[in-house]
């Protein structure tokens, strides 16, 4: 039988490490590991990566309502809670591909609704895609070719920390002078803009109108009025001229900072602006931000069940309804009677709900209250191997195990698999039970 590798089985310094802590999925980190297994990012990581890689792998207990219990007892209690639920849901889904796949398999067994913690931003893009289509590019294409960025949003450092290092102004680029790149930041911020960029202070709830006006200007038409969304028309004329003159322009946005009620309308307007600019030059759309492998969760759901997230699985054919199965709305409306929340990565804050809750979380995850069952799980990309999807949607990047699992934490996939085993003999979800007798 294979023995668990010790710290000496891992090299003390590692290069080209993939970071799992946001959708940029940077794959150039240098990481050192000390004799105690503590990790330290020594090159290329942002502040978030440096702090999350450095969290120690401490032993963590399972809990039932705040009482420490062995893993088996926690699994039994979680299985009982799920077995007796009439309207279960599985949310969070911040995990590696394998953890998400196991969560969806459990949802299928339970007839549960599935949704990701960051689905609101994700669905801005998906709904716009259904209406207008989208012209996008890979991070690599943008890094090597784009010479103009028009970026809508706020707090770029928080939502896409290494956007400028990795894509806008990388140290080297193949087909352009990285230093010659210019751009505009459109949004509520008022601090200094990065070199070569100009800040246009704007109300982001008006992003659809701003993008529509830019589309008109790029097409050679003149919109009415002298301001749109707080931006003077002469400034919009300059942005439109820059988009027309660029060899390869980019219209980007931080989805999480758009109007929550109309983010899809804004993304649709961005997509139309990109299409308009492509009539005379090259231009691509770039959705930025996202944590917890939200895009990966949506991909896994699509390739395993043929539907996006915000679906109910297992109770007959998968049923997708982006409004009816929005988990935040279901919780607010009291329509869930047991919630399993998966948060092996950052980016999936545990909801403050009174509903019975099973939480599978990385150690250190803040909790609004003691859940009915808490099972700590290992962190993908630090404590075990796996994969995550990058924000441009074209690459699933491999996560490496960087240290021995001294805390002995199970992976999310292993915990979810154990729950599935415990539920194997349970009655099928209602609609399947009915059809099984036909
Ligand atoms: S930008 Fe995101 S993926 Fe890159 S190092 Fe920072 S947290 Fe990790």
Report strand %: 15-25%
Largest sheet: 9 strands, mixed
Count of DSSP strands: 21
Structural domains: how many:
3
Give the overall pLDDT as a whole number: 93
Give the fraction of residues assigned to helices: 25-40%
The helix tally amounts to 14
Shape: globular
In whole angstroms, how far apart are the ends? 47 Å
CATH fold field value of the largest domain: Rossmann fold
Q: What CATH architecture of the largest domain do you see?
A: 3-Layer(aba) Sandwich
Low-confidence stretches: 433-438
Q: Please identify the top-level CATH class of the largest domain.
A: Alpha Beta
Walk across the major sheet and give the strand order. 5-4-19-18-17-6-7-15-16
Bound molecules: iron/sulfur cluster
Q: Radius of gyration in whole Å, from Cα?
A: 23 Å
Which structural class best describes the helix and strand composition? alpha/beta
Tell me what you see in this structure:
The protein has about 450 residues and is an alpha/beta fold. The chain folds into 3 domains: about 45 residues, no CATH class; about 200 residues, 3-Layer(aba) Sandwich (Rossmann fold), CATH 3.40.50; about 170 residues, Dimethylsulfoxide Reductase, domain 2, CATH 3.40.228.10. It has 14 helices and 21 strands. The strands form 5 sheets. Strands 5-4-19-18-17-6-7-15-16 form a 9-stranded mixed beta sheet, covered by helices on one side. Strands 10-9-8-13-14 form a 5-stranded parallel beta sheet, with helices on one face. The chain is globular, with a radius of gyration of 23 Å. The C terminus is likely disordered.
């Amino acid at each position: 039988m294979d023995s668990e590798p010790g710290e000496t089985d891992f090299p003390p310094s590692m290069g080209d490490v993939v970071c799992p802590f946001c959708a940029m999925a940077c794959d150039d980190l240098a990481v050192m590991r000390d004799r105690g297994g503590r990790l330290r990012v020594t090159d290329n990581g942002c502040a978030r990566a440096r702090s999350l890689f450095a969290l120690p792998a401490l032993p963590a207990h399972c809990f039932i309502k705040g009482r420490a219990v062995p893993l088996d007892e926690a699994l039994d209690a979680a299985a009982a809670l799920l077995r007796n639920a009439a309207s279960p849901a599985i949310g969070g889904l911040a995990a590696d591909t394998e953890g998400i796949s196991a969560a969806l398999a459990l949802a299928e067994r339970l007839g549960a609704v599935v949704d990701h913690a960051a689905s609101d931003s994700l669905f801005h893009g998906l709904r716009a895609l259904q209406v207008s289509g989208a012209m996008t590019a890979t991070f690599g294409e943008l890094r090597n070719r784009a010479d103009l960025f028009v970026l809508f949003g706020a707090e770029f450092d928080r939502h896409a920390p290494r956007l400028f290092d990795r894509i806008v102004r990388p140290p080297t680029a193949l087909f352009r002078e990285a230093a010659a790149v210019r751009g505009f930041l459109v949004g509520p911020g008022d601090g200094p803009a990065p070199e070569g960029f100009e800040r246009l202070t704007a109300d982001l709830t008006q992003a659809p109108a701003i993008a529509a006006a830019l589309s008109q200007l790029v097409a050679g038409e003149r919109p009415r009025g002298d301001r749109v969304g707080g931006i003077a028309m002469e400034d919009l004329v300059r942005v439109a001229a820059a988009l027309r003159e660029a060899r390869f322009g980019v219209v980007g946005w931080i989805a999480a900072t758009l109007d929550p009620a109309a983010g899809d309308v804004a993304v649709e307007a961005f997509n139309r602006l990109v299409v308009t600019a492509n009539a005379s030059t090259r231009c691509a759309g770039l959705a930025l931000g996202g944590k917890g492998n939200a895009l990966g969760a949506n991909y896994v759901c699509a390739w395993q069940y043929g539907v996006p997230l915000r679906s109910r699985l297992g109770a007959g054919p998968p049923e997708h309804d982006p409004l009816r199965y929005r988990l935040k709305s279901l919780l607010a409306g009291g329509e869930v009677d047991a919630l399993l929340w998966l948060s092996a990565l950052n980016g999936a804050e545990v909801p403050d709900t009174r509903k019975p809750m099973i939480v599978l979380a990385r150690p250190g995850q803040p909790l609004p209250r003691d859940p009915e069952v808490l099972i700590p799980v290992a962190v993908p990309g630090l404590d075990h191997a796996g994969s995550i999807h990058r924000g441009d949607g074209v690459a699933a990047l491999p996560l490496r195990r960087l240290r021995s699992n001294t805390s002995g934490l199970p992976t999310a996939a292993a915990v979810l698999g154990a729950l599935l085993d415990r539920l194997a003999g349970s009655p099928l979800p209602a609609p399947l039970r009915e059809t099984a007798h036909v």
